[in-house]
Amino acid sequence: MLHASARAEPGDLDAAVDVPAGTCLAVAGPSGAGKTTLVRVIAGLHRPLTGRVEVGGTTWLDSASKTDLPPERRRCGVVFQDHALFGHMSALDNVAYGSHDRRGAHDLLERFGLAAREHAKPRELSGGERQRVALARALARAPQVLLLDEPLSALDATTRASATRELQAVLADLAVPSLLVTHDFAEAALIGDRVAVLDGGRIVQEGMAAELAARPASAFIADFTGAVVLYGSARSVADGLTEIALDGGGTLVSVHPGAGRVAVTLYPWEISLEPADTALHATSARNRLAARVTSVTEVGGRVRVGLDAGQPLAAEVTAPAARELGLAPGVLVAATFKAAATRVVPG
Amino acid sequence: MRANKLGAALAIASLGLTGCGGDALEGKRPELRVGAATSLKSALTEYAGAFGQAGVRLSFAGSDELTAQAASGAPIDVLLVADPGLLDRAGAIEARTVFATNALVIAVPAGSDEVRSYRDLSRPGIRVASGSQRSPIGRYTRRFLDALPAPERAAIARNIRTEEPDAAGVVGKVTVKAVDAGIVYASDVTTSQGRLEAIPIPGDLGPGVAYGAAVLRRTSHPDEARAFVAGLRGQAGTAALQRAGLQRP
Amino acid sequence: MSAVSPFRVVAAGALALLVAFLALPVVAIFVEQSPGELIGALDDPGALDALWLSLQTSLAAVVILVVVGTPAAWLLATRRFRGHALLVTVLELPLVLPPAVAGIALLACFSADGLLPTGNLLVLQTAGVIVALTFVAAPFYLRAAQAAFESVDRSWLDASRTLGAGEARTFARIAIPAALPGLIAGVALGWGRALGEFGATLMFAGSFRGITQTAPLAIYERFGTDFTGALALSAVLIVLSAALLLTVKSGVARLGTR
Questions:
Q1: Predicted confidence (pLDDT) per residue in A21-71, tens digit
Q2: Does residue B234 sit in the same domain as residue B181?
Q3: Rounded to whole angstroms, what are the CA distances from A133 to A50, A94, A127, C88, C159?
Q4: CB–CB of A71 and C161 under 8 A?
Q5: Residue A72 is nearest to which of C155, C156, C165, comparing CB atoms?
Q6: Are the C-beta atoms of residues B127 and B180 closer than 8 Å to each other?
Q7: For a FRET experiment, which of A39, B112, B135, B249 has its CA 20 to 30 Å from that of C39?
Q8: A296 pairs with which residues across the strands?
Q9: Would you state the torsion angle of the CA atoms of residues C16, C20, C21, C24, taken in this order, to the nearest 10 degrees?
Q10: Which of B35, B40, B51, B14 is nearest to B230 (CA)?
Q11: pLDDT value of position B21
């Protein structure tokens, strides 16, 4: 269990998080929200004005009792934004730096599929390979908590997809709490078990990603937590399209390629709603999912409609439209959206 | 219009240029460039200031440095060195004169009683500063040491801690008490403003230190230069030299 | 074919002028004498003593600067505290002091009547030469070292700390290797400065063959009476300094491609 609460310089950070062992909390927020400060406070690289960091029963920081362990005394694994691999050392030496265990480091690199590159210097590795080395290095000392600071932002779009999947796999196997910070809510939704939105140094909402999308507490969160994530199995069909059989029922068509297990992200404002018993009509939107309304949240003139289509979903419509359609929990609707509005991520 | 302005500008410029060059123009005082040994500094400054026939620009340096510069064509009119023999190496000269003598003395910090006579120089543990053997002061020192019995000479040689490029360096080392004694010119002690005391070297041991002057043949002011050199042996020159601790030739 | 801009021509001219200005005097030293004269003058044991002393004392000064100056530069580079700017200015002072002033300052501090009761421990001793060289060469190394440490990626240092390495281990295993090219360049600069030092050495340590007469002092001594000897010794010193500079630069280049 990770507990971290901290108040740093006014305006910088004033938040508290609790992350149970084996789970990942994704802290999402715009630039300057204080995400990196949070990571640095937990890692011991920044001393807040007041704060408390407790990991697995050990107190790393407690301003009340003047406890403040230096970073090297905390068993904290950190993956930095630009990976921060030591350029003058090989991948193997990087991973073994903290653990002093070259055999263990080699095994770890092998697990990440990099055994063949273990003697390469960081500048000889690709972005994706560097990210894996950084992850391996952070895990090499069997840390009590894993922190990830924008771990995917340094990667190009193509690599990001496979890196996301690898990260998900690693975190699923992890027995300790992990905390990931990112400016990309979609990333947070994909990787985190729970998501907390950080804005102006404060946590403005926390919960499951779908919940935040369906019931945003403010217009800012509504804008920020746009992405909705659906899981399913994909296969290629005619005309270069991809058909995804969604978990929980329903099919979805996307213009983006994918095969096997995938996650599909789309934004609520790209989803239109109509009464479930509307007759099928010609429309360019290839997707139509039957869904039941689970919540209706008005946020500054817009309405977020929480839906259950076998998986949680959220649509955004105008208040007048919501009134006209008589949207209320329990109402059956059809959610339509274009094949082009979807993004497919290997899941 | 433009031609007139151009002409005016040229005229003014040419006036300036000729002004730089010549004493040929009336009413322009010639300027002598004099290179002199550092030990002559106070004496020469006084004498040159009072020299009426020309303005004097003095520059002081070690005698051998000056000689080398003169030999390689440096633009000086008069050369004054602390070893008349050096004048032979200065190139084409004339009006060669020996205008002063100096004595070699042992300088000690004022109030010190480590060294009271030249005999003390050879005592174990005494630190001595000397001029480098390639400098005039060093050559004179060598002549003094050579006049001593061999064991005493060797003992003093063991006590020499530094061989300075010029007398000023020796004076400096004695003044900051880096050494107990240094072998310098009598004039150096006279001009030390009380910081140094002189211990005389007996006449038979002390080498004669003579200062030589010469006019460089290539000077553009031969008359003024010769007058300058001749004046050193005159009343004003001798007085200034004696006030600085130098003696008549 | 595009026309060459006038500015480009002017810049090239400036470069040519500068190269000529800096190279010609050096070339002149070699041209003014025959190789035979050059080698012959090295038979002078005093000249060899001076070169050997120069090498020893400059090396000692460099070692002192590296051992003491590297951690100091590290602290300056990684911490900001009150008086930081003032400290840096103090450390840079020898840069703007004329060597003669440096010599006087050292005398005022370390001589028999000076500020510190060192008596004559340093004055006119080889140790005094090393002190003078260290004094004048210090800012050359310190500035380069500080800049080198400042350019080390801070996230590397953070990463090292989170991986269990304390400040000392981070300094030794991460900061120094990462800053090494800059540190070596600083060594080259400092060493060059120490090799060429003249004024402060003469005033503070005097000039005595084998004890305190370094190569520049020996050159000055020969200047008046033995110009050939001075030329020869100068030529050797130039070759030595150039060799030093080239070795360091190639060492840095090799490090860069590691």
A1: 999 999 998 887 788 899 999 999 999 999 999 998 899 999 889 889 999
A2: no
A3: 34, 8, 10, 39, 13
A4: yes
A5: C165
A6: yes
A7: B135
A8: A305
A9: 180
A10: B51
A11: 45
For residue C119, give the chain B residue with the closest CA. B178
Type of residue found at B113: D
Residues of chain A contacting C, Cβ within 8 Å: 40, 43-45, 70-72, 74-78, 80-82, 84-88, 97-98, 137-138, 141
Q: Which residues of C touch B (CB under 8 A)?
A: 107, 111-114, 120, 123-124, 202-203, 205-209, 211-213, 217, 220-227
Cβ pair C107:B176 closer than 8 A: yes
Q: CA–CA separation, C106 vs C132, rounded Å? A: 7
Strand order in the sheet with B196-200: B160-164, B128-131, B181-185, B104-109, B196-200
Examine residue B10 and state whether it is found in any structural domain, yes or no.
Answer: no
Q: Tell me the ipTM for this assembly.
A: 0.79
Same domain, B172 and B108: yes
Separation in Å, CA of B69 to nearest CA in chain C: 9
C47 Cα to chain B: minimum distance (Å) = 14
pLDDT at C168: 93
CA dihedral A178, A183, A185, A188 (to 10 degrees): -10
Between B63, B67, B162, which is nearest C208 by CB? B162
Answer yes or no: is B13 within a domain: no
Nearest chain C CA: its distance from B64 CA (Å): 5
Q: Is B140 helix (H, G, I), strand (E, B) or coil?
A: helix
A220 three-class SS: helix
Q: For residue C254, give how far its alpha carbon lies from the nearest alpha carbon of chain A (Å).
A: 13
| All residues at 6 or more sequence positions from C121 whose CB lies less than 8 Å from its CB, including other chains | C110, C127
Check whether residue B136 and residue B173 sit in a common domain: yes
Same domain, yes or no, for B72 and B108?
no
Is the same domain home to B191 and B129? yes
Query: What is the crossing angle of helices C227-256 and C176-196, to 10°?
Result: 180
Q: What is the pTM of this model?
A: 0.78
Structure tokens at C87: 């400290």
DSSP B145-199: HHTS-HHHHHHHHHHEEEEESSHHHHHHHHHTTSSSEEEEEHHHHHTTTTSEEEE
- Does the distance separating the beta carbons of C112 and B163 come in below 8 Å? no
Do C124 and B68 lie within an 8 Å CB cutoff?
no
Do residue B143 and residue B190 come from a single domain? yes
From chain B, pick out residues whose CB is under 8 angstroms from the CB of C205: 162
Same domain, residue pair B93 and B115: no
Full residue range of the structural domain in which residue B196 is found: 104-200
Search chain C and give the residue with CA nearest A97.
C163
Same domain? For B196 and B108 the reply is yes
pLDDT digits (tens, 9 = 90+) for A116-133: 988 999 999 988 899 999
CB A23 within 8 A of CB A146: no
Question: Residue B162 and residue C207: Cβ atoms within 8 Å?
Answer: yes
Provide the residue type at A337 as one letter: F
Q: Which residue of chain A comes nearest to C174, CA vs CA?
A: A86
Take residue A316 and report the two structure tokens written for it: 């955004």
Instruction: Return the pLDDT at C2.
Output: 63
Neighboring chain C residues of B161 at a CB cutoff of 8 Å: 124, 206, 208, 211
Pair of tokens at residue C49: 């003593």
| Cβ-defined contact of C224 to B67 (cutoff 8 Å) | yes
Give the one of C155, C165, C178 whose C-beta lies nearest to A80's C-beta: C155
Q: What is the CATH number of the domain that holds B219?
A: 3.40.190.10
B63–C224: do the CB atoms touch at under 8 Å?
yes
B156 versus A239: the higher-pLDDT residue is: B156
Cβ neighbours for C70, distance < 8 A, ≥ 6 positions apart: C145, C176, C183
CB contact under 8 A, C112 and B161: no
- Domain C-terminal end among B183, B200, B217: B200
What's the Cα-to-Cα distance from B18 to each of B11, B28, B56, rounded to whole Å? 11, 11, 20
